[in-house]
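Handout for the seminar on molecular recognition.
Each group receives one record of this type.
Step one: identify the two inputs.
Step two: read the structure output and locate the region that could contact adenosine monophosphate.
Step three: write two sentences on what you found, then compare them with the reference statements printed after the record.
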Amino acid sequence: MPIDPYAPYDDNNIFARILRGELPCKKVYEDDFALAFHDINPQAPVHILVIPKARYVSWDDFTIHATDGEISGFIRAVGAVAREHGLVEPGYRLLANVGQHGHQEVPHLHVHLFGGRQFYAMIPQ
Ligand code: AMP
């Protein structure tokens, strides 16, 4: 079920539990601002989720309430993960689902990083 974009942050969401070390993940990157790990149900040869360490429900929440340092730290982390996986030259795709229409299912901001193959239509019809 897509999340309610107006709900307060849920400290028991699955990514909050991964950040606290209560659930495992296949970690590929970590710094002060972000954690990145393989998606449990990959949709491409490379499918990595990058999440901020701080408590933000969505891209909307993040871009309203995060500090400039948190925003720049998170966005730089997304770029670093792509570079570290050799995705810049062949290219890659970023996706952030937001709320009901975006079909966001986990209520902790995450950016999907897809790579390792050619992509075509941006939105399936
Ligand atoms: P979204 O629809 O943008 O909220 O995507 C949530 C993503 O989280 C999906 O691609 C899921 O496969 C992924 N996911 C859910 N639980 C886990 C988990 N424990 N570890 C890694 N990825 C997960």
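Reference statements: The mean pLDDT is 96. The radius of gyration is 14 Å.
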